[in-house]
Write a structure and sequence with these properties.
The structure is a single chain. The protein is an alpha+beta fold and 445 residues long. It has 2 domains: 23-62 and 118-288 and 330-441, Outer membrane efflux proteins (OEP) (Up-down Bundle), CATH 1.20.1600; 65-116 and 291-327. 65% of the residues lie in helices and 14% in strands. The protein is built from 9 helices and 8 strands. The chain has a 4-stranded antiparallel beta sheet with strand order 2-5-7-8, with no helix packed on it. The longest helix has 68 residues, at 119-186. It starts with a helix and ends with a helix. The mean pLDDT is 88.
């Protein structure tokens, strides 16, 4: 009993520790973790393995196939045949009913089949290889999308965290101003409007703070979902928004040449075009003859009763070797129609390939422009924040000295709060737009 209690205690402690496991991530660590544990990434790995198994499934159809058959028959009522009676000394022109053979039969056979020539088989092997490349590219695209989603979610968590910190700081300053203004008003040294202006601003800050706290929890749960862990698992981010944004400002990235063949969407549409080409070859191969060989070996036993498993049963062996040649001759133009449809599908795929090339070039220019604009906006937002802080500080001093009204102070505070949010959002935009550009270039973080 004592040992059992000890084991249960150890198991409980281990379970409790597992429940309290805290995850700590830099952005790069979060990306690497997600590529291993994200639900979509896991299934993409499975799809690639499935494609490899499908390739072998196709190859195996052209390799030797062995099958076995065992059959048993018991003729409850045997068929009767008639023979001329004169064979047994009877009258000519009459017949004698007679039963041939024994009522019970057992048969065991094994058949070896080998495909000698089939044009569709060769095309099938090529298609299986192309499908593996397609699955590999799909896995690559999934990884890129997971990476992008993690970067955005990581930035959103940092944005919500920074927003909460700034709003708490703004709230504390406002509460201090409101307290001092309330005292001045109570002592007859201030106006009621000044108190009301600060109350309006404080109410707005409180609402924003509550919303930011909710968003902080939601964004963290979204990040956990992308990481492939429980959404309520305690997760800590090891980077702050400002440092991360600074790391993402890379002017050299704007000088990177766009290589079409590196883009994963171009790879996928190229795979689809290759598949359409193979489908056309497949339809053309249907007009070729097919040749198969088979070797059959079997044994049959007959008996009046079921004694096939005894050593006294007599078995009669047989064996057959043969070739099957199938020659397509006329299909009422059915094969021709299928071939023409495959040709149309190939032409459509080539058109889509050309369209994709043009779209990707435009997408690259757009992503490059957006990334450059996000850097410019970040620098502008940073300068505006410094100006807004100075303006708010001057109005704060003027207000305390009675040289500025509460309305002027509220305008300066509102301008500061907007500048703070724009600055935070500009840092997130730098991070996200850099990721968009890297997606087009297919550059790894």
């Amino acid at each position: 009993m004592r040992n059992s209690l000890t084991i249960l205690l150890v198991l409980f402690v281990s379970w409790a520790n597992a429940q309290e496991q805290t995850y700590n991530f830099t952005l790069q660590q979060a990306i690497e973790f997600a590529l291993e544990n994200n639900y979509s990434a896991i299934n993409a790995d499975r799809d690639l393995i499935d494609a490899q198994k499908q390739k072998w499934e196709t190859i195996a159809t052209g390799l030797p196939q062995i099958s076995g058959d065992i059959s048993y028959q018991n003729q409850l009522k045997q068929q009767v045949s008639l023979i001329p009676a004169e064979f047994g000394g009877g009258e000519p022109g009459t017949f004698i009913p007679i039963v041939f053979g024994q009522p019970q039969t057992a048969n065991a056979t094994a058949t070896l089949r080998q495909q000698l020539f089939d044009g569709s088989y060769l095309v099938g092997i090529q298609a299986a290889k192309t499908f593996i490349k397609y699955s590999q590219n799909s896995k690559e695209k999934t990884d890129l999308e997971v990476r992008k989603s993690v970067v955005e979610a990581y930035g959103n968590v940092l944005l919500a965290t920074e927003s909460v910190d700034i709003l708490n700081k703004n709230k504390a300053n406002l509460e201090k101003n409101l307290f001092e203004t309330q005292k001045l008003y109570e002592n007859g040294l201030g106006e009621e409007e000044s108190v009301e202006q600060l109350q309006i601003t404080l109410s707005s800050i409180n609402n924003q703070l509550k919303n930011s706290l909710r968003l902080k929890d939601i964004t963290l749960q979204m990040l956990n979902l992308l990481l492939g862990i429980d959404i309520n698992a305690p997760t800590q981010l090891l980077e702050n928004l400002n440092d991360l944004a600074q790391q993402q400002i890379r002017p050299d990235l704007l000088e990177t040449d766009f290589i079409m063949e590196n883009n994963v969407d171009f790879k996928i549409i190229t795979n689809l075009t290759q598949q359409r080409e193979l489908e056309l070859k497949l339809q053309k191969s249907m007009a070729l003859p097919t040749l198969n060989a088979f070797l059959n070996y079997g044994s049959t036993s007959y008996s009046d009763s079921f004694n096939f498993l005894s050593s006294d049963a007599e078995w009669f062996d047989s064996s057959v070797f043969g070739l099957d040649l199938h020659i397509p001759i006329f299909s009422s133009l059915g094969r021709s129609a299928k071939t023409q449809r495959a040709k149309i599908a190939l032409d459509k795929a080539k058109t889509q390939l050309s369209e994709t090339e043009q779209n990707l070039r435009l997408q690259y220019k757009t992503a490059k422009s957006n990334y450059l604009f996000s850097i410019e906006e970040y620098n502008t937002a940073k300068e505006n924040l410094n100006l807004a802080e100075r303006i708010e500080n001057k109005n704060q001093i003027k207000y305390e000295e009675g040289l500025a009204s509460s309305f002027e102070l509220r305008q300066a505070q509102t301008q500061l709060y907007n500048a703070q949010q724009e600055y935070l959002q500009s840092m997130v935009e730098v991070i996200n737009k850099k990721t968009d550009l890297e997606m087009v270039l297919n550059n790894k973080l």
